[in-house]
Design goal:
seven-stranded mixed beta sheet; Aspartate Aminotransferase, domain 1; 505 residues; binds pyridoxal-5'-phosphate; alpha/beta; four-stranded antiparallel beta sheet
């Protein structure tokens, strides 16, 4: 930071204090009449006696504060976002416009169903699309995200096993799995048994078979897996787990590579979540609402959670109680109200505007773009596993060996060069992973710019410019933060510096 500069601003990047640190007591952007005196106390003696401590700000101060904060966001709308496993693609504005239609945006979950037949029709149509794309029997729309879908899937598997008399004890999870997979299994009370990957990055059926027994509740696989590789033994693994009476869960976060090409029912899947916010057009990454509908096989459908839409004689109805179903589920709902309705509207709008041919082309282009990056970067970085990849490509840090530069340094240097880094250090099964997912919405020009930048950085690392990498990033408002401490010990409460009563004077 430039110490000769009192503002700490730099190159039109403005230092932004908290809103509470701005302004002055008594300043205001609105002109309200003084309250009548004495105001009758209708609060039963609970009236505040000390100042509330709100910042005193003019309208332009408020506008500038929030506009500056908004400009600190890096987003898919501002640039390439090659985060592997996240499917950060462009979300067509059409879908946003449709989700904001008052008939969708202004309805309430407690409205009588006779007044929201259109909304229920949207849900029913989305269910039809998800069934058609996966070949599965039933859909639970309500889970709010991928991890929540996993929880729904495993709770449903557990319910089905309990109905047979025994919940069993173990869930098999590949070593390459996303962290939410073992976490979900553990949360459902299962012991997690890890399955190592073979030398080609895939889960071998033999390694699964060795670990299967009468205590196996399920195997959780990801396909394509987190190395960006199609699990070629998937069907054989599903058959093997069915052979011992267990279930096959598919983590469908990478569905972007399969849409319109693989009907997962044909692979032997019993349950799979679909991250609508990854594959089917909802902005994500900022903590906004997502949706993780779960598709189920015939064997699991009777155990899935409510609510779901049914077509009755008088129109659509919402089945909201497990009562009356063939077999009762031990859990009725997985989510308050019905789920992330706005995300469903976006997903359906996306599906209808793309058409099945468009969706099929999207998955093809996603795989093509990843393979373009693979082909052009494999001599500069080290490809973790040989051969074609699916929608993302995995490199590791062997190309940095002996340079003194780490994967983290390399990612920070990419920021200085104007690119959001790829996912780093995931998956864990390779050393210093760099996982790149370009998605289908990036142009050849953007990919070429990225490739040229990565090539130039790799050359600088090989040329011994260790210090350059260790000093990166230079151009960000902050340099390197202690991210672990920030995550472990977040300071969420602001305290004024010179206060007496907890409030700013
Ligand atoms: C994103 C992701 C998840 C979790 O999904 P959320 O919607 O973030 O909860 C699970 N598995 C994989 C492979 C993922 O990429």
């Amino acid at each position: 930071m430039d110490t000769n500069n009192a503002s700490h601003h730099r190159g039109l990047m403005l230092e932004e204090p908290l809103v509470f640190e701005l302004g002055a007591a008594g300043r205001t952007g609105v002109d309200l009449p003084e309250p009548e005196d004495p105001v009758e106390d209708r609060l039963g003696g609970m009236r505040r006696k000390t100042p509330i401590g709100l910042p005193g700000l003019s309208e332009p101060q408020v506008v500038r504060h929030y506009t500056r904060l908004s400009q600190k966001n890096y987003s898919i709308d501002t640039g390439f976002y090659p985060l592997g496993s996240c499917t950060m693609k462009h979300n067509p504005r059409l879908n946003e416009a449709l989700a904001r239609l008052p008939g969708f945006a202004d309805i309430h979950p407690f409205q009588p169903v006779s007044t929201v037949q259109g909304a229920l029709a949207v849900m029913a149509a989305l269910v039809q699309w998800l069934k058609a794309l996966t070949g599965m029997e039933a859909v639970a729309l309500s889970p709010a995200a991928g991890a929540h879908g996993e929880l729904t899937g495993l709770m449903t598997i557990r319910a089905a096993l309990e109905a047979q008399g025994r919940a069993r004890t173990t869930v098999l999870v590949p070593a390459s799995a996303h962290g939410t997979n073992p976490a979900t299994a553990a949360l459902c009370g299962y012991r997690v048994q890890s399955v190592p990957a073979a030398a080609d990055g895939r889960v071998p059926v033999a390694a699964v078979k060795e670990r299967l027994d009468a205590d196996t509740a399920a195997v959780m696989l990801t396909n394509p897996n987190t190395c960006g590789l199609f699990e070629t033994d998937f069907q054989a693994i599903a058959e093997a787990v069915h052979g011992v009476g267990g279930f096959c869960y598919l983590d469908g976060a990478n569905f972007n590579a399969l849409v319109g090409r693989v009907r997962v029912a044909d692979l032997g899947v019993d349950a799979m979540h679909i991250n609508l916010h990854k594959t089917f057009s909802t902005p994500h990454g900022g903590g906004g609402p997502g949706a993780g509908p779960v598709v189920f096989s015939k064997a699991l459908a009777p155990f899935m959670p409510v609510p779901f839409v049914r077509q009755g004689a008088e129109g659509f109805v919402l089945a909201e109680h497990p009562r009356g179903r063939a077999i009762k589920t031990p859990f009725g709902r997985i989510k308050g109200f019905h789920g992330s309705f706005g995300v469903w509207v976006r997903a359906l709008a996306y599906m209808l505007s793309m058409g099945i041919d468009g969706l099929r082309q999207a998955s093809g282009d996603a795989v093509l773009n990843a393979n373009y990056l693979r082909a052009r970067l494999q001599d500069d970085l080290t490809l973790s596993f040989p051969g074609l990849c699916m929608h993302e490509v995995l490199f590791d840090d062997r190309f940095l060996k002996g340079t003194g530069v780490t994967t983290l340094d390399f990612a920070k240097a990419l920021i200085d060069a104007g690119f959001h880094p790829m996912t780093i250090y995931f998956p864990l099964i390779v050393h210093g992973a760099l996982l790149v997912e370009p998605t289908e919405t990036e142009s050849r020009e953007t990919l070429d710019q990225f490739i040229d930048t990565v090539k130039a950085l790799a050359a600088r690392a090989r040329a011994g410019e260790e210090a350059f990498f260790h000093a990166a990033p230079r151009h960000t408002p902050r340099r390197r933060l202690d991210e672990t401490a920030a995550a472990r010990y977040p300071r969420l409460r602001w305290r004024p510096r010179n206060h007496t009563n907890g409030l700013k004077e």
